[in-house]
Amino acid sequence: MSDEKPPQLVDYFVVAGLTDTSRPLEEENQQHRPARPSEPITDVAVIIRSQGEEVPHGFTCIETTTSGHPVDLNAGLLNNPQMFICYKRGRDKPPLIELGVHYEGKDRPKPGYKILDTTPYSRSANLNSGGPGHQRTFLTYRRAAEPHGHNTLGVTDICLIMPSKGESTPHTFCRVDKNLNTSMWGPALFLCYKIAMAKANTLVYEAGLLGRYPEQDSESFPLPESVPVFCLPMGATIESWPADTKYPLPVFSTFVLTGASGDKVYGAAIQFHEAFPRERLSEKQSLRLGLLSVVDRRPVAGRSLQTRKSICVLSHWPFFDVFRKFLMFIYRYSISGPHVLPLETHISHFMHNVPFPSPQRPRILVQMSPYDNLLLCRPVSSPLPLSGASFLTLLQNLGPDNAVALLVAVLTEQKLLIHSLRPDVLTSVGEALVAMIFPLRWQCPYIPLCPLALADVLCAPVPFIVGIHSSYFDLYEPPRDVIFVDLDTNTIFQSEERKLLSPRSLPRRPCKVLLASLHSLSQQLDEMYSGPGEEASLELLLSDAEAAQGRRAQLELEARAAFLRFMACALRGYRSFLRPIALAPAPAGRDASSLFALQGFLKSRERAYHRFYGQLLRTQLFTQFIEDCSFASDRDPCLEFFDTCVDKVQAELEKPEETPLIELDDARGGEHTVFITPPEQPAGPDGAELPARVRYDGFPTLRPELLEPPRDPLVAQLCQARSSAPSSPAPRRTKQEMKVAQRVAQKYSSVPDMWAKCLLGHCYGLWFLYLPTHVRAAPAKLRALQLAYEVLRKMEAHKVVLPDEVCYRILMQLCGQYGEPVLSVRVLLEMKRAGIVPNTITYGYYNKAVLESKWPAGTQSGRLRWAKLRNVVLGAAQFRQPLRQRERRAAAAAAAAAPSSPPAGGRAPPAPRPGLQRQTTWAGRSLRDPPPAPRLVKSGSLSFPGGTHGEGGRGGPGEPPTTRSPPLPAAPDPLPPRLRGPPGSADGSLSDVSFATDESDRADEGPAGGGGTPRRGLAAKLQQLLSPGKRSPLRPATSTELPAGPRDAADAACPRRGSEQRDGDPPPRRSPAGTLLRPRERPESTASESSVSLGSELDLSDASVGSTGIPKSSEPTADGVAGQEPPAVEVLLSSCSRCQGCGALVYDEEVMAGWTSDDSNLNTTCPFCGRSFVPFLSIEIQDFQLPPSVAADGSLPPHAAQGPVLSDRRRCLALDEAEPELCNGCPDAAVPRRSERVAFAYLSPLVLRKELESLVENEGGEFLAQPELVDSHPIIYWNLVWYFQRLGLPSNLPRLLLGSQHVPPAPQAQPPDPPCVRVRLLWDVLAPEPDSSPPLYVLWRLHSNVPTRLRSWRPHGHPVSLAFLEAVLSHVGLSEVHKAIALFLEAPAAPAGPRHLQRSIYREILFLTLAALGRDHVDIAAFDKKYKSAYNKLAGSLGKEERRRAQPPSSKAIDCRKSFGATLEC
Questions:
Q1: In sequence order, which residues have a C-beta less than 8 Å from that of residue 504 and are 6 or more positions away?
Q2: How far is CA 1164 from CA 464, 979, 1142, in A?
Q3: How many C-beta atoms surround the C-beta of residue 567 within 10 A?
Q4: What is the pLDDT of residues 1272-1306, one digit of tens each?
Q5: Distance CA 1426, CA 1419 (A)
């Protein structure tokens, strides 16, 4: 694990300006551009030369158009008055900032505008004065407000154009779209003007670094050297002003720096002026600034000298409004005073003590001073990439039509030059241009605010998006092959060399919907900001600013969704043209043509749009997009979100879909606000406040000793790094996948059978999340991966509802990690066969695994030959099977016919043997048969830890084992036994039949059977089933990495001891009645309390290896008890929970049926009273480890010696008579040294998966293999053990218990084999409540003298008699379940205590039937149908309480039991 720092709000604070090493910027190439105007236009006038009016003094008359045509305003009229427009420059008054044309009678006067209605000679200034019938037309203008600064924007040039003469609006000029000549005869004439910053006496230099904090570079993000030139994009200036000039307001600007890896860093800066000493100027500089007279070099009075500086913050987050407020506060602090605290204290306080907003603290209120504060809110959680784009700013400055034209330009990779006089607008619009083409990424140069020092990029021969200040064109000639976008005039200028595609080349319907959406948004914006700007701003600021901000954020989201819908429609169906890598990749395997069917995609589009798509497919945008979709990258979640948008849109519609494409999470997550106080002011020696003595003449040089204040402990806790570990991104679900899974679960929660499969799918998802940990610990990685692949196949075959593709994704990633590309290809084929189209993330991991892994060497012909050889070997083995089976039957018959004889007299008597050992396999002989002759026993049917018992069988206690050459084995099959089909034994006999005691078969041999009523009738019928069944075909022993069943997976944690038993203790008692088998099923008996395990309906619950990968035989013992010594630790788990409302017991399948689709809800619903409650997993941990005193010498106790295997009935009956304490197949000879009971919440698979994902993300996948998991996250641990055990999936989780606090450390001297942990899952409660009556199945065992698991259960004077139990069983056997229900309802109720556990009648009858007849003779599905039918017959005559007691389980509960398995242990 490693420490991951939380997001930092600000990375650097920078001061930029003029340094001693700054070089001038205006000397080179200035001759290419005429001298810019030094003064703005302050007045405009109209003169009538036909009336004798002359041009006023200081005015300039406009007599020609831009191309030299005369511009008589009334040309063509009979009485031509010869009117002309004049203008005047100067600085004696505020400049003009806007011009216009007013049609009297048609237009309303605009507020702030003045109408020019008279000439300087007091005549009418009507521009159309040819007669009374003409439209009266006047010029209008608006002047800058007082006081105006030296660098105030103003009109710097005016011109007239005639479109009929081929003239167009000059670049950077604004055109007034009202004809000055409204008569019928004259040519159309339009007024154009240019707004710029008229500067005089200015020197421009390249900006340099004046100060920074922190002074040391960060390892993850060093400070770029180009930051100062971005802070002052037009350079650091020295300006000469008149002495009485007002200081202009600071100018706010933003910029974006893009790293080599594509990550963005956002900068926010303000530019301001401060005094500059004359002493630092040379004579040449003073002459250029006008500070010295040209003739006699005398100082010019009445002039002041200023320089331009900038302060800036750099951050990875586009909090531009917050940064603007902070920088403005710092600037005002530097020009005011005096202050108590220095400026550096506020800078370091903001950078160190303001935490980044998080879900726990979504709002940060920073109080910088008693009058200044700012609110920092958590960024909106969006599936789209983080951006500083403002689509509303784009619409406000360009309009909908120009926005669509720019979309075409960006998609076809044109050279775009955006310019404006407002530097803060450039970044917002530039970010919007690169964000509107999502999911494509702009690959060429992108500089939204380009400094003059980097203006050479405009001459680059590659496409680019560059934003620049409009004053650039006063210094340089613009390139000719560039498309200019003027944000101040809402115009796009296209050169003749590079023409844009028309928007008509775009797909018609998506483009029509896009334009309609943008026009609607533009209209709403106009309504929001209607009226004068000052009044609107004041209203928004004072009335309802927060609501207006929320409305603007909503419109911003709608604008982005409009562009997203267009891109989804334009690229719809692209995934079907992706070409997966299915063979060993060639050197050109990463080319777009080999990864994507370009021509096929082009042919799938309408022919009218081929020109647009043809240019799009040739761009770097699309090539990079295909590579991102084909290989794993950090953009996978965004691309996966785009795929869901493609699925949502309907391109043939001419209106947006009702379902929103972008669903945002709550940006704030709550109203919890953290308040950050201003820096604490130091107190004097006597506690009094210190005097304010800090004052600055200009922005100071940062002092490092003042930039490290002590950090507030509370804020330090908020800002501290959280401990986490980097984990693979493959197991993580994206937010979009989580939302889809939530919707699917909500949909299926009302469908019983689908809800069960949905829960089952999430359970398998849990195991696949654990799979990397399991494979890492597995000795054979390939076998473990093949096991996971077979599990996937079986899940698909049984239509398990997978909530997402994480299962496939994890397996593909592991295939790439362990070099198995062929298996990865098979996984992809399985996905396609199941009808699942891999999303971008899964597809990327697949291609990465295939491309980066080493493919197996060899040719196709070699593989075919090996396949043929394998088929020949398998065929020969199949032909030999009948011969071997015939030989075995003949040998068995001969052994049965031969009489048993005592050993020869000359032979020495056998040595004293240890305690008798129960044989764990039965070879198909009758219990009456004598011991067979010595013969070879297949090692796959009986496993021995020692070498003398590993490959042979015993003919007698003193005879050596006989061996023979083993037959040709079949090829290994990676499938688990229950995945393969009907199991068989390795030697053709019923070698895996285990002994389990049936309660109904209580023979009366010996005193143990005389205590109860004999059940000879039922036992005699069941005894007929003990005859040998049909022998199964040969099945070889499988690998050690295959999954085990829920019982075998736990038992596999214990090393098998096929012939070891503790000497001295009586051997386990066995009934002569063996396991009751149904045809072609694995022999298991639900009547055995220790051997009954969950058999999944999907046949995924059995295999031949345990959770720790310890080798087992392919035919393990049924109960895991006989044939091995007790485990070191045994864990009993039960999910049976008590409803707090009605006191009823709610069993596992009913708990599952009551869960909801909410992945944060821990409650389930009681099926009896309908109340919600939290179910619990009850756990009992039994420690059988020997105390250190016993095992100090390292020797085993006397009763642990091995004993011979018994095969005849006489010895079995002797064992039965000697062991009266066998609890239905579960011997209780071993008493745990210590026992502990705990309980934890029983989580739904949906909730558990969310918690497990969070744990893996924070702690790392390796944490799942550490014993600390048991103690630090017990709820997750025990729920995982429960689910893995239920589904029979292998895991190492049970072994982690040995290192937890629940199990004391083992003694120093350990046996050679590691201790084992066995897990048993119980259906009923672990322990009864005090003074509660036992259930009926326990009473049956007590009446039958079968010891129960819990000795505390006794009859306690229960009113139910044995005859009652026999009557219930008789009715059930005769299919008269309604009579059995009636018996229950008529029987006297048991005395109810204060905490009486209520079992339903259904549970009582079902458990009693299972205990009496055995699981193999009870079809639970048929029983459910009969019980439901009987309940429906009686429902009309039952009362409310009786119906509640007798109600059957719901269909959802039945489906859950069917999907997860039929039975657990009772």
A1: none
A2: 59, 32, 14
A3: 22
A4: 999 999 999 999 998 889 999 998 988 888 888 76
A5: 11
